[in-house]
Design brief:
mainly alpha, 7 helices, 2 strands
Length: 179
Amino acid sequence: MCIRDKRWGKPDHFVNDLWPHAEKAANAIGISAKALVAQSALETGWGKHSMRFPDGQQAFNLFGIKAGSQWDGPTLIKPTLEFRDGVMQTEMAHFRAYDSIHDALEDYVEFIQSSPRYQNALDHQGNDSHYLKQLQQGGYATDPQYANKILQIMHGPTLAGSVANLNFDQSRVKESSHA
């Protein structure tokens, strides 16, 4: 299966694929990998609703980042739910597309670090909750419950179970490499 055809059937698969890239990206902005994986889980429905091109190819936009005029990479047009004056409505928007999970996470870090809107989020001193709330206040999403939804995923049983399975799988890999 080509990496551009990546599909996630279970949260465990999604977390397993994202985790090493999320760790690197999280270290770059000083938050936990759990926060980034939870944000991506919210944006993509644990990967089940990740953006795809019309031919079905994966776009790897794991964070719902729109393609503004400064973006010179590939894009796709998709419907999105936005809150306007407190009312949720569907709009069409241009979104960034990537070749891989790695590229998506690298761009996320660059996007957050380079935007003045998110500087308060980066002044979080390792506090994931503060980061997510400031990200929302900076206009990352129009959903007034965006940060709370990510925090619920972060502290919920699905992510905890997937991380536990990830740790179990990693320990089995380490054990087999020492045998």
